[in-house]
Model the fold of this input.
Amino acid sequence: MSVNFANKFDRVPCTVVTGFLGAGKTTLIRNLIENLEGKRLAIIVNEFGDVGIDGEVLKGCGIESCPDDNIIELANGCICCTVADDFVPAIDQILSRQPRVDHILIETSGLALPKPLVQAFQWPDVKARVTVDGVVAVVDGVALAEGRVADDHDALETQRQADGSIDHDDPVEEVFEDQVACADMIVLTKSDLLTADGLAAARERVSAHLPRAVKIVSAANGVIDPAVLVGLGLAVEDDIENRKTHHDDELDHDHDDFDSFVVDLAAVTDAEALAARISATAEAENVLRIKGFVEVANKPMRLQVQAVGSRVNHYFDRAWGANEPRRSRLVVIGEKGIDRAAIERMLAA
Done:
């Protein structure tokens, strides 16, 4: 099925902020929240347990353009390894907000690889609605000046051991190189704690790992003009092949090879029976996602269906409009080669 993607300027832009634990990601994002005037924001914070930065730092800041309900914490593990389970439902939740969100900020966990996350923006039902405005890598200036890539390697190892979802077991230096390789802008933090020689040493170490012409900007206490980082309009998901990383040949981080199609159904009489069919179909045919709206006979409300793997959520979201056609349509997403005929048969049974 051909997918008619919206113009990138019609889609909600998203900035991905990556970097190690303690580099200053949350401080940077808080500064963006406070200074991105005129934009209604939403934030996805990828953290877990009691290790590292708590999403609560960003909550309760009292900024009208970014209410607490627009800050979503993903605590199930490294976002680059739990894309289908966590990231896509979070995007769906954000895009359902009214009034409409103008910009999304994503703070990855310290050990996340940004490229697999950006590849998830190539999923058909994501790409039609969201575009990656840019990837920002936050690096610790003091650590780099002292010959390290992170402030506390032991804390990073503790984070790795605590997160059972991480399926990449790489040296910290390789994760750093992957984060930098995918970036459109490097923010070198803690510049106020560095001498001129230390700052030069930190910048030189980052530059040695930059495969492309990427700017390095210095920041103290996360303070930087938002215009430098937001509004880049790069549509990074369309340029991902130019960002070479250590994991380009690993199948378990290849999220861009999918089939997507729409299944039209007759009205159903039993929402629970439909949910059971969807769950069984996803399990039997290795479907990643099923989502859409369904007509339930003799009900004035529209049934919204969201399935991630075999886990199905459904609820009546609103009444059908007076002039709105009552119909049942489900979007199915899976890896290349899923059996469309079998899936259609099972859903319509």
Summary: The radius of gyration is 21 Å. Residues 10-253 form a domain with the Rossmann fold fold (CATH 3.40.50.300).
